Every structure is written in C-alpha cells, then in structure tokens.
Amino acid sequence: MKVTGVHVLSFDLGGLERPYRNSIITTSRKVVTFVEVETDEGEVGRAFASEREAPAIEGPIRDRILGEDPLNAARLWHAMFTGWRKPVVKGDAISAIGAVDNALWDLRGKILGLPAYRLLGGFRDTVPAYAAGGYYEDGKGVAGVVAEMERFVAAGYQAVKMKVGGAALREDVERVRAVREAIGPDIDLMVDANNAWDAAEAVRFGRAVERYDIAWFEEPCWADDLVGAAEVCRALDMPVASGENEFTRWGCRDLVEQRAADIVQADPHTAGGLTEWVRIAAIASAHHVPVAPHGNHWLGAHAAAAVDNGMVVESYARLQAWQDDFFAPWQLEGGELVLPSAPGLGIEVDLGAMGKASRSG
Ligand SMILES: [Mg+2]
Fold first, then answer.
1. How far is ligand 1, taken at its centre, from the CA of residue 217, in Å?
2. Same domain for 184 and 103
3. What is the pLDDT of residue 5?
4. Same-domain status, 87 and 218
C-alpha cells in the first residue's frame, strides 16, 4: 500500500453566539479543519489540523510521504521532520507534521483493524477525563462560571478546569473560591493561566488560591520562560502543569530536565503527532513525571491510554454544544472516557452535515 494523496478540508461553521476568551486569546468562530491521507487501495486516514498548517501539509510534507508505505510510522515521521532545508524544532511546521502523523495513525488503525491507542502501546481501555472550561465571556460573572462547573460535575466529570489570569488577581481568586465552594471537596479543580504571568506574579496568585486545594496550576509563565516556571514549581506546594506550547521530544526534554513542569501537557497534535507524543511520554516517564495531553479528547484519550504514565485527558465535550450536531459523543463512565473499539482514531463525524452548515453559515 502507498500514500497517494494528502489534503486539507476546512469548514467554517459561522460565528459563535457568545465569543469566549482565556488570558490571551478570544475565540469567536466555529472552524473545524481536517487533514486526509489517501492510499492507492482506497483507505483514507483523517485527523484534526488547522488552516494555517495547510500550506506546509499540502506542500513539503505531502511531497515527503507520497509513494511511501503508510505503516512505517518512524520512517514517515523522520521523512516529514528532516525534509526541510534544516530541521525546524518549534512552531507551525511541527504542528503540520503532527496533523499528518495523526491521520496516518487513523489510517494504520483502519488498515490493521485496531484502535490507534492499542497500536501505540495499549496500556488501558478507559482514561480519567476532566472538563475544560471556565472561560471569560461578557456578562458571565462569578455566577456564570460556577453554574458551568456545576454542569460539568452533573454530567459525570470528577475533575474540572477553569481559566485564570484574564481578570484582576482579586477577582480571579474570588472566582476560584466560589467554584471550590460550589463543587465541594471531592472534585478535582485545576486552574489555567495560559502564560499570563512572570514568576513573581504567578507565585503570588498560587499562594492566594492554594487554600482551595488546586489539583494543578497550568502554564503560570510565558511558554519560553522555563527558568520562571521552575521557580514557580519550587515555590508552591501545588503541582505545576505545562507543555501545551512546547514541541517535539527535544522541547519537552528541556521542560522536564529544567524541572519547569510537575505534569507534562504536550499536545498530541501540535507537539508533533502521536508518534512523537509517546516519545515525549517516555522522556517524562524516565523522570517520574506524569503526562496529561492538552487538546481535544479524540486524540488525547488515544495518547493517554497508550502509555503507562498517562494521568488524565482534557475534554471540551461540554464546552461547545454545537459539536454535538456533527460528532458522535464518547461514553463517560465514572469520570473516565471509554476508548472506542472502532479502528483508527474513531472520530465519527458527519462531513455532509458539516459541509451543508459551512455553506449556509
Ligand atoms: Mg491550557
């Protein structure tokens, strides 16, 4: 079997009724982008991509894998990574490689008749998941974020995450206090600053919320500030989680070796795909550090279920209700996501409905 085509499919499903933001980015449109890898035997692999990755995917990356046997995971990753004038270890080129690598894992699963997580290692069949939300929205207020977190818990999640760093420190502390009071002591609560602070400010915030039993403090410092993040790790008792803005095994090696994260959150798409992600997990494992993949559960669950140090999976399942119109939901049992038995990534999506909505949206 040979790879005969690689292309990007993007659906703009219109504007969000209520744009939402974290400490740095506002999301205002519903856009879903896939990459598809085709073969001479008609089998197609599909995974998530982003529009800005399209020029790299449909250009140099495609050229590196056309005609190759899609089963050769390490060989194809190496070809995609070293095919540039110089290997580029950070940025969108790596994310574009990651998207194609994941579509290849979907394809391998379909060829071999097995779910991707079993081909990648197969450590377990269910993984603990947390609901990510608690974004800032105009008019949402403390009551709004409390109601959202209560909704996550009612849906069966045993762990929830909220944004911080996008309001005045005192206001953020009050949001965290109100959520902890509402969800009670038995639900894990994480806070995510999305690189809002320098080390001193992050430590100040961490000390102000540590009484609310925070399961982890995510991305307290700028993504390049490993020294600052290491300071925060040392200064606070609560674990610091980081890595969604890091790339490849080499970037994550530095994160771990500098003790800049107690939990590594490499994203199985943007850090270089599932092939690279399990290598990152192995580096973390060698330092007795757990991994908690950033990003959607369709990929994250395969990543975390494949390795022995997978901690918990991020899920936006209850954050964006519009996704239910196009994607089949996954089962959540006792706070754990049940991995699909379907071959490949098991992303069941109604592309016809998405195409129609995108033309009218
Ligand atoms: Mg985050």
1. 10
2. no
3. 98
4. no
